[in-house]
Amino acid sequence: MNNAATSTADRSATAADAARGPFIAVIGNPNTGKSTLFNALTGLTQKTANYPGVTVERHTGSVELGGRAVTLVDLPGAYSLAAQSPDEMVAIDVLLGHVESMPIPQAILAVADATNLRRNLFLITQLAELDLPIVLAVNMTDLAEKKGIRIDYDLLGRELGVTVVPIVANAGTGLETVKQRLANALNETPPARPILLPTVHDAARDLCQKTVDAGLHLTEYEVERALIDAQGSADRRFEYTAGETLYEELQLIRSRLSAGSSLAAMEAKARYDLIGTVLHDVESREPPPTSFADRLDRMTNQPVIGLILFVLVMATVFQAVFSWATPLMDLIDSASVWLGNLVSSLLPPGAIASLLVDGVIAGVGSVVIFLPQILILFAFIIFLEDSGYMP
């Protein structure tokens, strides 16, 4: 199929998805279980195509929410909305409604890793500024509990202004609750967006008004991201859309606000300060229960006890190799002598009898007699390695 045909097919698939009804964007950091959750929600209704103009795959699926069919779009994994890779640019384009035949999503299903909320919440706080209802599915809660991480999910939702649902995607835990919250989100008005950098926000609002006066269609959010993400995708889009005059004004505003630093660094600091405050309130970390293996490990690593244990282990191995193997070695030796005598009694004296008795039987016996020692030694080595005592 040629590129034109492929592009036409992709646009048709996109248009069909948009016409089906409301759609929800699924987004999260890589390796958070986002696609696992998407697969669990959509089942066998998935379709795969390419986004128009790029080779990034678009995964869509249908799920019934509140008695109506809703399309889910599984966006590529992203760490932030400051797009650097083609995958991240596609994710942002979908969220902002810049993909052909796809409107702005009615809601967002964000997925985060419960064991690493600090990193994941950077993207979530950016998504909260899109003025869209957000359902945050906090995945891998079982692993977090095993690590002693305790999270107040209700308080987390209140502080971020999103709906939080704890889940274990690969086990199917919490999926029905996710569906209920998504159905509610389609009819909700998102809370007021947080303003982390008021001066940047005010400057973006004023500049956005100038773009509106010029007949352009740029939102305050897009202008603010263009100010912050110098030489990023938002910056390039603003330059292409707004023209030279407005872009020069944007650069002047950025230079004035950065004050010797960069707005991106200022944003990162403000977000991580916010995340730190939120996590201080909602997350506690307790040392996981000490297992017998942990206690044994600490004991064996003590200088005195560890040295004594090492001597005992080596003495046991030595005793086993040279004493426990003796009965088996004697048995093999006796069997070798018995077999030699048997062959000697059956064959007449001569070269053949001597070859078999003194050569083959005696030679093989002299090797096999060490087999008990070798087996016992390797059995101890395997045990010590599997127990973790010997690396």
Could you characterize the architecture of this molecule?
The radius of gyration is 34 Å and the shape is elongated. The protein has helices at about 5-20, 35-40, 85-95, 115-125, 140-145, 155-160, 175-185, 200-215, 220-230, 235-240, 245-260, 265-280, 290-300, 305-325, 325-345, 350-370, 370-385, and strands at about 25-30, 45-50, 55-65, 70-75, 105-115, 135-140, 150, 165, 285. It starts with a helix and ends in a 5-residue tail after the last helix. The protein has 3 domains: about 5-185, P-loop containing nucleotide triphosphate hydrolases (Rossmann fold), CATH 3.40.50; about 200-285, no CATH class; about 290-385, no CATH class. The longest helix is centred in the last third of the chain and has 22 residues, at about 305-325. Strands 2-3-4-1-5-6-8 form a 7-stranded mixed beta sheet, sandwiched between helices. The protein is an alpha/beta fold. The chain contains 17 helices and 9 strands. Helices cover about 60% and strands about 15% of the residues. Mean pLDDT is about 85; it is low at about 1-20.
